[in-house]
Amino acid sequence: MSEMSAQSRGMRDVLLRNFRAMKGRAYPRIIGMNREPSWLFFDTLMPILSIAAFVYIYKAMNAPPQYIGYVIIGGAMTAYWMNVLWAMAAQLYWEKEIGNLQLYAIAPVSTMSVMAGMAVGGAFSTTIRAVSTILVGIMIFNVKFSMASPLLLTGIFVFTMIALYGMGMMFASLYMLWGREAWHISEVLTEPVYLLSGFYFPVKYLGTGVATIAALIPLTLGLDGMRQLLFPYAGDGFIPATHELLILTVLSAIFLVLAHYFLNYMETLAKKEGRLTLRWQ
Amino acid sequence: MAVEQIKNTLSRNFITFKTAAWLGWQMDSNWADPFLFIIYTIVKPISATFILVMMYVVVSGGSTAGSLFGFMYVGNAFYMYIFQILFGVTWVIHDDREHFQTIRYIYIAPSSFYAYVLGRSMSKLILTTVSVAITLAFGILFLGVPIGLGTVNIPMFLAVFFIGLASIVVFGLALAGISFLTAEHGMGMNEGLAGIFYLFAGVLYPIGTLPAWGAAFSKIIPLTYWLEGIRRSLIPTSTDPTLAAYSSGFLVYLMIISTIIFLILSIGIFRGAEHLARKQGKVDMLTSY
Predict the structure, then answer these.
(1) Which end of chain A is more exposed for a tag (fewer CB within 10 A), N or C?
(2) Can you tell me the mean pLDDT for B240-254?
(3) Is A280 a domain residue?
(4) Which of B72, B99, B185 sits opposite A57 (nearest CB)?
(5) Chain A contact for B57, CB < 8 A?
(6) Nearest Cα to A92, choosing from A210, A212, A262, A252?
């Protein structure tokens, strides 16, 4: 009995420690915004410039009004993709460069907790950027959204985030081994993903084959689902939003499990090859 | 004696420029094997272009025949120079200071820091030229972008192209100077200026599409005239209606004048920021950004 209680206490301690690690890693990302308020200016105003440019292309083409809404939603979601790419996946490269990665490796916590902390903190700060993009879109471009299915919309958004950040954790394991190529890989994953996921146009126009492959990127279905629910009259959806929610749920589970496996594997490999402390590659 | 001194200075600066260009090329290209590097060089610009192509064909119902398509396609292709060169020139300071921590050695070396910064950004210029060439070739061969060898005004293209490049480099040098003083805003500054140009310089649509104040603002950006000149030289029928009253010669004249003004400003900003950075001990600061 006492052995069992010791075991459960041990388990509780492990969980608590990992939760603290997660909280500890999320903290600087959230609090950092208070310490450097100018980030708000750069994170909210700068993205608006390129998003506005895309809006004006559609205006120049006399596109139907919902296309302006598509750009605003897509533009808001770019913030999450950039966050996943540069502040989740590539983060372990930065951590290696500044000497933190070895500290994560020797800490008595799971790397997943550290990554989860990054995800929570990153998603919080990114949400501010995304929300401000949408608000500016509503105010400047007079975009009108329908809120007919708020529950389904929330579900799609939440599971898009879980799957997306799970994918980010999975990528992070690769970045643990990489040097300068991390930077370039992140760059090369920007525009192609914007294209395949249909950030600025409905993904169904890429054709069923390409759109199906693109559905492996959680943002593809997330964006498509949210657009269908926010602009129900447009009829530009790829597959029904409820199916998209189901697929996103499955993707969330798959990416999180794969992330756990990959992170353990890559960390062991990085230790074996002595790459955890290798800087300036 | 004075001529000999000038010759020696130029020769030393050229060696610095050449060595920095080689270093920049190695840093930009030797992270991958040549095959992967070629794919990387092709995929990025083609994807960025295809986003716009898709936006266009989705609305037009599959056609790429309209005059706006050529306008947008050429503008987007040449905008790559704006983004990449601004980024390339500015990032040298940040990269050498924060990531490779080599700036103190380069800064105290008996060579021109200007020549070094310009040399380091050359690889970006070469890679961007490859990307632009691929994008244009793709557009002409597969998407019907109406650029014909017989209709291209080559002298005008060369004149406009090189003056415009000089103008972008000049902007970049001013930003590089400011980068001496700030680590955390380096990227935001680059993105911000590139974003302003993307929105207001008539890259993707005629500036008349913007609200009146936006179109007026476009007219004080030299790169608006650069893109207009490039388009006129490549596709004679592709003219921004708002700028149609300006002759091509006048565009070139405007560009030369504005580039000279910005050159003087940029030297002032660079030197001023450099002086402040030395005074405040920021030349080799480390902030982990």
Answers:
(1) N
(2) 91
(3) no
(4) B72
(5) yes
(6) A262
Q: Report the half-sphere exposure of B273 (CA within 13 A, side-chain side).
A: 17
CA distance A142 to chain B (A): 15
| A82: contact with B, CB 8 A cutoff | no
Q: Look at residue B228 and tell me whether its pLDDT is greater than 60.
A: yes
- Each domain of chain B, given as residue ranges in start order, spans 2-279
- Between B19 and A5, whose confidence is greater? B19
From B131's Cα to the closest Cα of chain A, the distance in A is 13
Rounded percentage of chain B residues whose pLDDT exceeds 90: 48
Is residue A191 within 8 angstroms of chain B, CB to CB?
Answer: yes
Does any CB of chain B come closer than 8 Å to the CB of residue A201? yes
Question: Given an 8 Å threshold on Cβ–Cβ distance, is B205 in contact with A57?
Answer: yes
Count of domains for chain A: 1
Which whole-number Å values give the CA distances from B230 to B223, B250, B274, in the listed order? 10, 14, 34
* Chain B (144-203) residues lying within 8 Å, Cβ to Cβ, of chain A: 184-185, 188, 191-192, 195-196, 198-199, 203
Segments forming the whole domain that contains residue A111: 10-272
Question: For residue B39, what are the CA distances in angstroms to A171, B131, B194, B236?
Answer: 20, 11, 25, 33
Establish if A4 belongs to a structural domain. Answer: no
Q: How far is B272 from chain A (nearest CA, A)?
A: 23
* Section B115-136 average pLDDT: 91
The verdict on a CB contact (< 8 Å) between B199 and A53 is: yes
Q: Say yes or no to pLDDT of A1 above 60.
A: no
Q: What is the pLDDT of residues B159-171, one digit of tens each?
A: 999 999 999 999 8
Q: What is the DSSP letter of B243?
A: G
Chain B residues with CB inside 8 Å of A200's CB?
51, 54-55
Q: Quickly list DSSP for A203-255.
A: GGGG-HHHHHHHTTSHHHHHHHHHHHHHSTTS---SS-HHHHHHHHHHHHHHH
> Domain for residue A281, yes or no?
no
Binary contact (A57, B203; C-beta < 8 A): no
Q: What is the DSSP string of B5-50?
A: HHHHHHHHHHHHHHHHHHHHHHHHHTTS-HHHHHHHHHHHHHHHHH
Query: Is B103's pLDDT higher than 80?
Result: yes
**Is the Cβ pair A199, B51 closer than 8 Å?**
yes
% of chain B residues with pLDDT over 70: 98
